[in-house]
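Recall the central idea of this unit: under ordinary conditions, the amino acid sequence of a chain determines the structure it adopts. In this exercise we apply that idea directly, starting from the sequence alone.
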Amino acid sequence: MTIWVTRERPKTDRIACPWLIRTFIDQDAQVRYVPAAEVLAVARDLGGTSFDAPGADYTHQPAPDGTGEWCTFETLVHAYRLDGDPALVELARIVHAADISADLQTHPFGPGLRAIGEGGPAAVANDDQLLERGAFVYDALYAYCSRTA
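Accordingly, the structure predicted from this sequence is:
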């Protein structure tokens, strides 16, 4: 079991990444949502891995082609060599569009996923429940991408 730590009140990338981690990287992963200022310290204290926070083990980074930045989901897909899965690559494009404001219109599903990500915290007060409920969105998008990619 590994512990993955990120900022509380998750939206798009902080729901997509735990889905990715539990589905493709570590099925037994535990996700901890903590105040932003505590992410790195909590991860260190628990022997965990930090993500989607400034200075985290995995976070936004410059795109290799120099055209902008990757969201954390894309960073994880690349770091764990999951980019051989065309459906996952397509899902990463959707998550990118929803998470990177300047690129919202780069995928037709971007605005819809962003709306879900923004509305989730208003609909569900508990971060763990939000992750549980939000995982279905990514299961469904991955299934769609598997059929179409």
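The longest strand covers residues 3-7.
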